Amino acid sequence: MESSSVFIRRPTTRGPEWGLLFASELWNAPEAGFGLSRNSGEVQRFYLLCRPEEITEREGSPKTACILLIEDNPADVLLVREALQEHAVRCELILITNGERATEFIQGFDASDACGPDLVILDLNLPRKSGFFVLEHIRASEACNHVPVVILSSSDSYQDKSHAAALGASHYIRKPSRLAEFMQLGSVFRELLGGRSK
Question: pLDDT per residue over 87-141, tens digit each?
Fold first, then answer.
């Protein structure tokens, strides 16, 4: 398992665009193109650099990546989305905001024999059930046990890092406090997806 918190590359996004990192900006994002599609109160879908109709894999064309983001902080959700766009990650981003619903969602892959996501980005401090609880269920899932899981947490605790590693986390990243460092996470996610881009 890798732990990382220092990055070098600066984002191309201009500073003033980051003035408002509030829930209202996230929930009012456009639904067309790449934006937010509100499917339910606890599961939302973003389409980054692709359209919803492109999600279905077509014969002879590359599969659009599916990333499961389990995070309850709207500002961090927005930053993850922007980091993926900054590094041209073409994907469907499924957002789940609590651990209990995330566990049910994971179980749904097994019940339907569906393919799991290509990457999971998981916070530890979640409502209802912790990120550790969710990680245990991911690793117990037939459809998802092979999926890379990145813990993205504000905790820098050695105990949390060790526990995450013991449960099978692929990477542990402390949430960066600087915008440039957060944007660089997009390259980490892209690399875990095998360099998939638009």
Answer: 999 999 999 999 999 999 999 998 987 888 999 999 999 999 999 999 999 999 9
CATH number of 36-55+63-192: 3.40.50.2300
Query: Is the pTM higher than 0.90?
Result: no
Domain assignments of the chain as residue spans, ordered by start:
36-55+63-192
- List all residues 6 or more positions away from 173 whose beta carbon is below 8 Å from its beta carbon: 3, 4, 5, 150, 151, 152, 153, 185, 188
Residue 58's CB is within 10 A of a number of other CB atoms, namely: 9
Q: Other CB atoms closer than 10 Å to residue 150's CB: what's the count?
A: 22
**CB 101, CB 132: distance < 8 Å:** no
Note whether 147 and 102 are within 8 A (CB).
no
Phi-psi region of 149 (alpha: psi -120 to 50; beta: other; left: phi over 0): beta
| Helix ranges restricted to H, 125-174 | 131-140, 158-167
Helices (H), the chain: 23-27, 74-86, 99-112, 131-140, 158-167, 179-192
CA 45 to centroid of chain Cα atoms: 11
